[in-house]
Amino acid sequence: MTLADILAVHQDREGALLPILHDVQAAFGHVSEDHIRAIAHALNLTRAEVHGVVSFYHDYRSTPEPRPVIKLCRAEACQARGVDALVDTITPNAAVKIETVYCLGLCSVGPAAMIGTDVHARLDATKLDALVKSL
Amino acid sequence: MKVRISDDALALACGADAVATAFADAGAEVERVSSWGMHWLEPLVEINGIGFGPVTAADVAEILNGGADALCIGPIAAHPFIARQQRLTFARAGKTRPLSLDDYYATGGWQGLAKAREIGPSATIDAVLASGLRGRGGAGFPAGIKWRTVAGASANQKYIVCNADEGDSGTFADRMVMEGDPFMLIEGMAIAGHAVGATKGYVYIRSEYPHAIAKMEAAVKACAHLIAPFDVEVRVGAGAYVCGEETSLLNSLEGKRGEVRAKPPLPALEGLFGKPTVVNNVLTLATVPWVMANGAEAYAAYGMGRSRGTMPIQIAGNVKHGGLFETAFGITLGELVTDIGGGTDSGRPVRAVQVGGPLGAYHPPSQFDTPFDYEAFTGIDGLIGHGGLVVFDDQVDMARQARFAMEFCAAESCGKCTPCRLGSTRGTETLDRVLAGENVDANLALIEDLCDTMKFGSLCALGGFTPYPVMSAITHFREDFVVRTKA
């Protein structure tokens, strides 16, 4: 999907900016300055307004992340189930990015993680290590 | 032989797909249904009403051969965890295929909407008022009063906005509704639209819930003809916790930064795009079809005091029997944690329970006789919030939990108001000094003062309620702050 396609799909919807940014992020892996300029033009907003929205939300990146990402929940319920100790067992692996997320709604079976839309629960050091190596 | 296995995100995370595949490969007919909410047993397999769990693919052959006694829990509906509940909102949990309109019809679906259409908008609002249903997102504001305000406002366009930005750790009831019984939520929104004169509804779902998003999008398509002229659209959040606050959510839906708006104006009068808007949580809207179909009196017959009806309570964290437990208000915290939850999963003593998400207070076992009720929890400087319980054992360092609350607030603050934006960062720094053992008493006094400012000076619950976990940790677990022997 090109940026023009994305804009054409959403441009006339109410509150089009977030749906556009979601699709741009999904298609290009980030939202660049060039994207911001084109989106601002299409929605009749200033670049500052679009930049303000992009930078507000955790989901949008300004540069692409080349590595596969594991989103590991670090919120209270997973803390109670030992996620902090689990993090200490992770051997640094330059090929995988482990990102913090606050809650995946799997709070009774944590520690939990998500890779893309695949969810994983009851993680221990062995399972997490296997996940990292599978990417 | 028909084998029923949940396909909700939690079951999937516990390996349900591999189990389903193994049954199908062995020649069994597999039906993917919603989750019963007994999470420690997931993946839970049901064959002719009998449950087995937690099942792995390796257990499948033995189950099909009539064995696997160690995994068998007997008839699921008779299991104490289920039998003790009063499931109204979760009446279908475990029993129906989430996206089957046939299953939904067969279990009383659309009866609430039919009733609302039959009795008309005004009587519908009266019924919601009479049921005593209060906002299940956390604030506990009577739903009927909100609806009446929107109904009474005149505008060329009104909106129903469903807040599905369930970001509180320890909560998953919204997710379970959207993934397990999506038509019920849509029916509730359609009833709200009919009642207040709105033709457009939005469901704002957090991006961390891809399975809920997919199910809701499919459900909206499947039932569009049944709710017309009302129309529902799914919108996806972008990883901002603060967007669970209703005015912040509205800004986000409009395509803006998710900054909180000052109230007044109330969203009921000037909400989405400046139009009168009902903003209700998933559980609130999902409960409305039951209220309409069974009558306000039947709903109000459950509960205690001003907390009428039932609450889908979510038992999570370090707990043996975690899951979804819907029951009338009035059950005590201790019953939930000890009798139903079975204590900690680690087998160590329970030390603290955080009730109501990251902005809820930490309660020691000495408060376990507190009934689950909005006013009772306010009375002990806590809140029930969205009904999540996170259990901690005696290994928890409460000073670190207090610091985390401040750090979380700093990470998620929208930046609009000073007490929250600056207070959370200064609070984190000050708690770091406490953790390092520097002038502990003086710094704790500073924290107390800061919490007072945040509580009364913040625009919304993020800054306003962060003092609950911080101050409850200091009040009930002061020993963790004073003597810093833990690393």
Folded structure, characterized:
The complex is a heterodimer of chains A (135) and B (487). With 135 residues, chain A is of the alpha+beta class. Chain A is 46% helix and 12% strand. Chain A has 7 helices and 4 strands. Chain A has helices spanning 3-10, 17-28, 33-43, 47-56, 76-80, 83-88, 125-134, and strands at 69-73, 97-101, 113-115, 118-120. Chain A has a 4-stranded mixed beta sheet, with no helix packed on it. In chain A, helix 3 (33-43) crosses helix 4. The radius of gyration of chain A is 18 Å and the shape is elongated. In chain A, 38% of the residues are buried. The model of chain A has no long low-confidence stretch (mean pLDDT 96). In chain B, helix 6 packs across helix 14 (282-294) and helix 20 (440-457) runs antiparallel to helix 22 (467-476). In chain B, strand 14 and strand 15 (362-363) form a beta hairpin. Helices cover 43% and strands 15% of the residues of chain B. The model of chain B has no long low-confidence stretch (mean pLDDT 97). Chain B has a 5-stranded mixed beta sheet with strand order 2-1-3-4-5, covered by helices on one side. In chain B, strands 13-12-16-14-15 form a 5-stranded mixed beta sheet. Chain B has a 4-stranded parallel beta sheet with strand order 8-7-6-9, sandwiched between helices. By secondary structure, chain B is α/β, with parallel strands linked by helices. The termini of chain B are far apart. At the A-B interface, helix 2, helix 4, helix 5 and strand 4 of A face helix 1, strand 12, strand 16 and helix 18 of B.
